[in-house]
């Protein structure tokens, strides 16, 4: 069992974020006899998953929806699957855009290297 401070340190997030996730219905820590939040390994695994979803730009509203569907039970598996497949599609779009941007930057960097190696000093930052 972990305190909110311990979870905060383990996951490198603030206690404010953990309280926010609780308020939003994304995580439901256990309360001990003193009313303090207590987390177990299942909570940690779930929060790691939530943080991954956040890293991939999934909105809190969708994470909340997924969490609520999970709590409703196995009959929501198709809806959860659809939600995750839609998000995967969004991630694939992000990857495609980032790959295109990386190519553009690589081309720009290559042009700068050639330009500088020839001793030029004109700024090419606005060139395509």
From TrEMBL:
It comes from Paenibacillus pseudetheri. InterPro entries: DNA-bd_dom_put_sf (IPR009061), MerR-type_HTH_dom (IPR000551), MerR_fam (IPR047057). Keywords: DNA-binding. SUPFAM superfamilies: Putative DNA-binding domain. Residues 1-69 form the HTH merR-type domain. Gene3D superfamilies: 1.10.1660.10. This is HTH-type transcriptional regulator AdhR.
């Amino acid at each position: 069992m972990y305190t909110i401070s311990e979870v905060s340190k383990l996951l490198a997030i603030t206690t404010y974020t953990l309280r926010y996730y609780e308020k939003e219905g994304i995580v439901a820590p256990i309360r001990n006899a003193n009313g303090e939040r207590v987390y177990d390994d299942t909570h940690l695994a779930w929060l790691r998953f939530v943080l991954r979803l956040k890293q991939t730009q999934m909105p809190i509203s969708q994470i909340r929806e997924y969490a609520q569907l999970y709590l409703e039970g196995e009959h929501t598996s198709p809806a959860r699957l659809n939600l995750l497949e839609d998000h995967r599609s969004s991630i694939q779009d992000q990857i495609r855009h980032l790959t295109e941007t990386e190519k553009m930057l690589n081309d720009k960097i290559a042009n700068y290297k050639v330009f500088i190696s020839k001793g030029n000093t004109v700024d090419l930052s606005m060139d395509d």
